[in-house]
């Protein structure tokens, strides 16, 4: 590491401390398929695959929707049908975005249902936590093995109390479904 003259002031001392920190911090890594990745990026069950979902269906619901339910409930205006094409199962990718807000100390979790089943990867995600101002958020989900035919997607949300809060709300929701034509 380079030495830094104390004459150059507090900023130089800060840079030297930051450089020392950068040179001493180590991160455990896991080598997967020859590529080193931080251990926190790997989950115990890694799923990967390839598919070509080139058809897109979407729905936008501008109205605000709120819940204080601590179990998953449907988000009104986010249910619609699509037809998975092809002759064999393929993936379906669901993107959900919304402007969201919570009461103090509340967390909103979202999940998609495919034909009334919660089988996406991931199954659900924390969407927004303890935010008193509206923020735009997005989450992506993969259904890796969806058979050809008619299917229904429904988005759901729930709230969990993180020390007293309860209400969560979304508005201007978009649900975009990428599927086989």
**Assembly type:** single chain
Q: How much β-strand is present in the residues? A: over 45%
- Number of DSSP helices? 1
Biggest pleated-sheet summary: 5 strands, antiparallel
From the N-terminal CA to the C-terminal CA, the straight-line distance is 57 Å
Overall average pLDDT:
78
Q: Give the helices and strands as they follow along the chain.
A: HEEEEEEEEEEEE
Overall, the morphology is: elongated
- Helical content (DSSP H or I, runs of 4+): under 10%
**How many DSSP-defined strands?**
12
Task: Point out poorly predicted stretches.
Answer: 1-43
What class would the helix/strand composition place it in? mainly beta
Using only C-alpha atoms, the radius of gyration works out to 22 Å
Name the features.
five-stranded antiparallel β-sheet; 181 residues; single chain
Explain briefly what this protein structure is.
With 181 residues, the protein is mainly beta. The chain is built from one helix and twelve strands.
Structure description:
This protein has about 180 residues and is mainly beta. Helix content is about 10%, strand content about 50%. It is built from one helix and twelve strands; from the N terminus they run αββββββββββββ. Strands 3, 4, 7, 10 and 12 form a five-stranded antiparallel sheet that branches. The protein is elongated. It starts with 9 loop residues before the first helix and ends with a strand. The N terminus is likely disordered.
């Amino acid at each position: 590491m380079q030495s830094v003259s104390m004459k150059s002031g507090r900023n130089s001392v800060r840079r030297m401390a930051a450089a020392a920190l950068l040179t001493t911090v180590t991160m455990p890594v896991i080598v997967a398929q020859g590529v080193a990745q931080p251990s926190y990026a790997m989950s115990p069950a890694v799923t990967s695959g390839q598919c070509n979902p080139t058809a897109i269906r979407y729905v936008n619901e501008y109205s605000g929707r709120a819940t204080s339910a601590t179990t998953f409930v449907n988000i009104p205006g986010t249910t619609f049908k699509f037809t998975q094409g092809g002759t064999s199962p393929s993936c379906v990718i669901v993107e959900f975005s919304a402007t969201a807000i919570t009461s103090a100390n509340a967390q909103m979790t979202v999940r998609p249902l495919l034909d009334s089943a919660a089988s996406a990867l991931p199954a659900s995600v924390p969407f927004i936590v303890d935010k008193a101002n509206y923020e735009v958020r997005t989450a992506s989900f993969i259904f890796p093995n969806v058979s050809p035919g008619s299917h229904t997607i429904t988005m759901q949300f729930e709230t969990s109390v993180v020390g007293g809060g309860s209400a969560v709300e979304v508005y201007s929701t978009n649900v975009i479904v990428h599927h086989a034509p």
